[in-house]
Amino acid sequence: MNHDVKIKLLKAARKSLETYFLGEKMEMMTLGIRRGAFVTLRKNGELRGCIGFMSGIDDLYKEIISLSREAAFEDFRFPPLSEEDLPLIDIEISVLTEPEIIENPLSFNLGKDGIIFTLNGRRAVYLPQVATETGWNRIEMLQSLSLKAGLPSDSWKSNEAVFMTFQAEVFSESNM
Predict the structure, then answer these.
(1) Is the pTM of the predicted complex or chain greater than 0.85?
(2) H or E element, residue 21
């Protein structure tokens, strides 16, 4: 994804939050790109919201606008973003590749691959940058993924567990 597209997406994400507080509508455009994506909000370097889709459900531009608002106002882990906090938020966008099944849960590339864990109707996902940010090794990441799915920490060892990996192109306001 070229630099201009990344800037357009970051500006759209920021504008979607600003227009929310102003009660205005966003001008829509299309990029002709359909990919899975996540929008992560950080306040003072700490996670403040993160919402995404593994596969593209709409044009990427429209998807980023929607995900930005969901990360700000609908991530159940955090209270809705206040207008006062908006200037303190750094927006990060992760544009994903299509997930691929892996046979061995230990065969993913730590820090390069995101991972999806599915077992007994439960599912959990970590973006590739989570390993780097937390300092986890593969086992720690798989244990945390199991817990995130609402299962015991050793559930990743189950023969019924399904794992998929993907990569992400990650860019944020603070590094553009």
Answers:
(1) yes
(2) helix 3-22
Gyration radius of the chain over CA positions: 17
CB atoms within 10 A of CB 122: 14
pLDDT score for 3: 96
Residue 162, SS3 per DSSP: strand
Q: Where do we find the tokens 């200037």?
A: 87
Structural domains of the chain ordered from first start:
3-96 (3.30.700.20), 100-167 (3.30.1490.150)
CA distances from 78 to 31, 42, 71, 174 (A): 31, 12, 9, 22
Q: Which two tokens stand for residue 70?
A: 């969901």
Q: What is the pLDDT of residue 79?
A: 97
CA distance 107 to 49: 29
pLDDT digits (tens, 9 = 90+) for 115-133: 999 999 999 999 999 999 9
In this prediction, the residues of the chain whose per-residue pLDDT falls under 50 are none
| Separation between Cα atoms, residue 72 and residue 49, nearest integer Å | 6
Helix (H) or strand (E) segment spanning residue 143: helix 138-148
Of residues 92, 34, 95, the one with CA closest to residue 62: 34
Confidence at residue 16, expressed as pLDDT on a 0 to 100 scale? 97
